[in-house]
Inverse folding.
């Protein structure tokens, strides 16, 4: 059954207007938070067990504690609204329908970590979300909820809204920071692992997802302990799932952590469409390994259970495939996306992402050979853990999973050509390139 | 000379008090705290392969060649971005199969979109991609697809050409222009394997150090427009030397073939030029080659040139009497200045000594490396007490004034560049005076010792003595930081010609200035006579020795 915490008021008309939001009890939590000690807020967030909803699932309270004391530099808060993981659209709903929930969460978080300046880095394609957030921020400035001495306190806090330019990688927090600084959006080297110590303009920076910040507001509205009472032992609270694909009722659903995964598909989403059988589900956005119908049995929706099944909860972007879906087509599609979006900074990702795409495309066009599957496996092994950011994992995990879990979708297209034929094929390609060169010159 | 400091290995990092103990491939080593694993391994005698890392640039960490296993780390670390810590245990490709595999994989990936056009590539033979492929991969590629196509032969500016397909995106050139010159002409456009080095749309790569990006490029993506398709590097003779363009004394590697310089590369010296070199030095080696070589002594009588022998020439010079002044080029060897000073001690009279020293105005950017003078070894003349440090320029101008006013009757001039870079106020006067064959004998009896008959000094000379050209000498230069370095000869001296130092020795009558028979002996005698006990030429060749100066 749905458990609406973040989406409590989502169906109210005009919720995006400040008046309506306040009528429903909005900004009371922020006023109350500004009256309490920042340290106590961080403790409350830790007590609530909130984990980052952007995909990594790292404890939000712990992250906030990484802010160095008295660094002599300003502290920045960034709301990561660059929701670009294919299959994920929960933040869009929150920003379009309930933008003040996120802004209130930002005010509380900023007070807790000592930030006076925050930025919402919003995905460039989210034009409607941008309009709604802009309106919400303008309304807050007009009423004195943002700017100087907010809510009549002596706390100054500004939020600016920044639109991304359409790069997937700018959702990675260090790439986001680079982009915000006006540079090419490329992830930074790790260590430092967290921008909490060295972030935007080398100052302490906290980057939180939209859903996380919305949850912060709710935690202070309902109390940390009440929030912690929801969910499982390690994965507390509720989580938004964006379900798309072959289900009868796709959409955003909020359920308690620990809710059975198949119930989400069969009950909330009305089951697989056209009465077909389930083939597989990508549970955390397209960068996570797919789970087969078999593997999904008994899995519940929390970080640990899905990990035990061989995938990750990620951003909660569920892509459901029915029995007619050809996994080679899916693999080609996803591989193309990642090849297109690789920032090109480090070698394994820059070259590997395209290599894998080209192999999938070759198999799909009938030129596959049996050793291709082990080749993909081998490329994946040399990309995983060898790149600057987790983009490497993002494209090899799904690729590996498709090849391993759905061999039947590939087998018919692979010929038993031996090495000699490979060499023949290489010659053929070489000649084609030479001919092309002649044409060009 | 108690000031002489023992030279450290050239690429050793600056002395740090604290040492940390680490294990590399099971070997315990103590290394200075604060250095990264590539440098630490180097101290332990282990080479960790790398493309994007450069000791004088920021860490980019993008090539992934330098991965190592660090005990306790979740995954492999890149050595360039890992600072040594006490007790760290590191496994390189020597002791870890996984590291070797990852390096092979990185090489395979770099090569999948590489055109493999080594047969026509200027970098072949000194290419890190070739070297590492043979050392760390040397397997057939498993890539069956079509390669990406990128820009070929794209000029980035007047000096550098880009081949986009050969580029491995190490970003060294971009970082050099961002961090060292601060001109930021270059960038990387596009994403993924469509990434390509681009020059800013409204600009070109034309800063005073633009050629350095070619040295930094570990592959054949950037080449010198001037030297493309010139020669295969393995047909060249390569010499480690010093650039004689100014007194910075940048360390260079000169490649020559068929008596021509075919490529100039900067050589790493942490204390002098890192691995940078200015374009004036790099592309300006032509000016050190004599335009009009002459091999026999010449006497000019009423404007008519007459070939004579060395013996006749020395006889005429000596019978002409005492010299009023000696003009020295700023690019003579310290050994030669030393001989001149020894010779002066034996003379009963004291001729005036003038050293070519001029200063040009430099932009702030040029000042990061270039010295304002054209006299690479003026410090050598100072070292031999031939001139005074105060008013170097004024001393030179005094000499020029005296010469153009005809006050000096008998003058000895050493070096092709002795009258190099004359200021406009003197140039017209002197060239008129000196080239006027009618008046020359009246004004002065100039004896010129050099290799270029086209130089101004030769035109006005009474007797010209042929000698070696600048690129044929070898010996010590002392740069403006008072670092003594070794200038090595690129070409052999023509036979039958006396070297400059031999001429000085012959001019000294009745005394034996040196017992040396060749340049090496001359250098060795110099070291012994000037108190450099225990210092060898090899030591000085390897980065130079500090004579107590500051940068």
């Amino acid at each position: 059954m749905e458990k609406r915490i973040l989406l409590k008021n989502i169906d109210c008309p005009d919720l995006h207007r400040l008046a309506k939001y306040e009528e429903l009890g909005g900004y009371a939590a922020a006023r109350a938070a500004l009256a309490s000690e920042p340290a106590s807020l961080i403790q409350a967030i830790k007590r609530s067990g909130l984990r980052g909803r952007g995909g990594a699932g790292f404890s939000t309270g712990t992250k906030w504690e990484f802010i160095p004391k008295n660094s002599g530099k300003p502290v920045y808060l960034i709301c990561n609204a660059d929701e670009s993981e294919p299959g994920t659209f929960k933040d869009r709903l929150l920003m379009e329908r309930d933008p003040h929930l996120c802004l209130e969460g930002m005010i509380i978080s900023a007070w807790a970590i000592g930030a006076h300046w925050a930025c919402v880095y919003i995905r460039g394609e989210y034009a409607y979300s941008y309009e709604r957030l802009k309106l919400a921020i303008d309304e807050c400035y007009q009423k004195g909820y943002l700017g100087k001495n907010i809510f009549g306190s002596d706390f100054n806090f500004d939020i600016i809204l920044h639109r991304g330019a359409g790069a997937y990688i700018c959702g990675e927090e260090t790439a986001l920071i680079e982009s915000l600084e006006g540079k090419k959006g490329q992830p930074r080297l790790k260590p430092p692992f967290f921008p909490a110590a060295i972030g935007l303009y080398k100052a302490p920076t906290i980057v939180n997802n939209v859903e996380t910040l919305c949850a912060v507001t709710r935690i202070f509205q309902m109390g940390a302990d009440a929030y912690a009472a929801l969910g499982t032992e390690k994965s507390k609270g509720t989580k938004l799932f964006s379900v798309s694909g072959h289900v009868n009722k796709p959409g955003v659903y909020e359920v308690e952590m620990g809710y059975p995964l198949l119930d989400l598909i069969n009950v909330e989403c009305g089951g697989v469409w056209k009465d077909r059988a389930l083939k597989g589900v990508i549970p955390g956005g397209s960068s996570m390994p797919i789970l087969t119908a078999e593997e999904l049995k008994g899995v519940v929706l929390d970080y640990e259970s899905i990990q035990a099944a061989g995938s990750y909860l990620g951003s909660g972007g569920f892509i459901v495939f029915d029995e007619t879906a050809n996994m080679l087509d899916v693999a080609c599609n996803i591989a193309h996306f990642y090849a297109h979006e690789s920032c090109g900074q480090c070698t394994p990702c820059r070259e590997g992402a395209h290599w894998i795409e080209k192999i999938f495309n070759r198999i799909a066009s009938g030129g596959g050979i049996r050793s291709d599957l082990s080749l993909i496996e081998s490329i994946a092994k040399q990309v995983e853990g060898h790149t600057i950011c987790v983009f490497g994992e993002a494209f090899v995990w799904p690729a590996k999973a498709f090849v391993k879990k759905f061999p039947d979708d590939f087998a018919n297209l692979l010929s038993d050509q031996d090495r000699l034929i490979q060499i023949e094929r290489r010659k053929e390609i070489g000649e084609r390139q030479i001919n092309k060169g002649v044409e060009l010159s | 000379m108690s000031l002489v400091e023992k030279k450290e290995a050239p690429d050793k990092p600056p002395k740090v008090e604290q040492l940390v103990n680490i294990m590399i491939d099971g070997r315990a080593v103590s290394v200075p705290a604060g250095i990264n694993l590539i440098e630490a391994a180097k101290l332990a005698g282990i080479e960790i392969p790398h493309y994007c890392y450069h000791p004088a640039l920021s860490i980019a960490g993008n090539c992934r060649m330098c991965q190592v296993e660090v005990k306790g780390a979740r995954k492999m670390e890149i050595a360039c971005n890992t600072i040594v810590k006490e007790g760290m245990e590191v496994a390189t490709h020597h002791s870890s199969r996984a590291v070797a595999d990852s390096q092979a994989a990185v090489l395979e990936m770099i090569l999948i979109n590489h055109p493999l056009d080594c047969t026509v590539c200027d970098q072949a033979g000194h290419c890190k991609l070739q070297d590492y492929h043979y050392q760390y991969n040397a397997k057939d590629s498993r890539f069956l697809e079509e390669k990406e196509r990128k820009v070929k032969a794209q000029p980035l500016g007047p000096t550098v050409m880009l081949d986009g397909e050969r580029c491995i995106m190490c970003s060294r050139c971009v970082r050099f222009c961002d961090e060292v010159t601060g001109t930021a002409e270059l960038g990387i456009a596009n994403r993924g394997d469509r990434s390509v080095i681009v020059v800013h749309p409204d600009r070109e790569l034309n800063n005073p150090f633009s050629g350095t990006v070619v040295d930094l490029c570990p592959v054949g993506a950037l080449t010198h427009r001037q030297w493309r398709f010139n020669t295969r590097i393995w047909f060249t003779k390569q010499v480690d030397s010093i650039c004689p363009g100014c007194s910075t004394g940048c360390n260079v590697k000169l490649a020559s073939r068929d008596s021509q310089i075919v490529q100039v590369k900067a050589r790493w010296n942490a204390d002098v030029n890192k691995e940078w070199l200015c374009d004036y030095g790099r592309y300006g080696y032509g000016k050190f080659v004599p335009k009009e070589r002459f091999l026999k002594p010449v006497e000019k009588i009423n404007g008519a040139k007459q070939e004579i022998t060395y013996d006749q020439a020395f006889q005429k010079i000596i019978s002409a009497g005492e010299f009023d002044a000696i003009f020295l080029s700023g690019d003579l060897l310290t050994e030669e200045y030393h001989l001149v000073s020894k010779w002066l001690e034996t003379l009963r009279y004291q001729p005036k000594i003038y050293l070519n020293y001029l200063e040009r105005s430099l932009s702030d950017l040029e000042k990061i490396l270039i010295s304002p003078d054209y006299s690479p070894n003026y410090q050598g003349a100072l070292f031999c007490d031939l001139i005074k440090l105060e008013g170097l320029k004024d001393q030179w101008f005094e000499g020029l004034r005296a010469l153009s006013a005809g006050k000096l009757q008998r003058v000895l001039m050493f070096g092709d560049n002795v009258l190099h870079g004359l200021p406009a106020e003197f140039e017209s006067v002197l060239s008129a005076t000196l080239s006027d064959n009618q008046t020359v004998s009246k004004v002065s009896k100039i004896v010129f010792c050099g290799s270029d008959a086209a130089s101004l000094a030769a035109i006005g000379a009474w007797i010209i003595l042929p000698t070696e050209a600048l690129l044929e000498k070898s010996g010590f230069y002392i740069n403006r930081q008072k670092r003594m370095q070794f200038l090595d000869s690129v070409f052999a001296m023509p036979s039958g010609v006396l070297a400059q130092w031999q001429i000085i020795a012959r001019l000294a009558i009745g005394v034996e200035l040196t017992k040396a028979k060749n340049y090496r002996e001359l250098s060795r005698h110099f070291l012994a006579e000037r108190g450099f006990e225990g210092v060898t030429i090899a030591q000085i060749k390897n980065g130079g020795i500090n004579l107590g100066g500051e940068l």
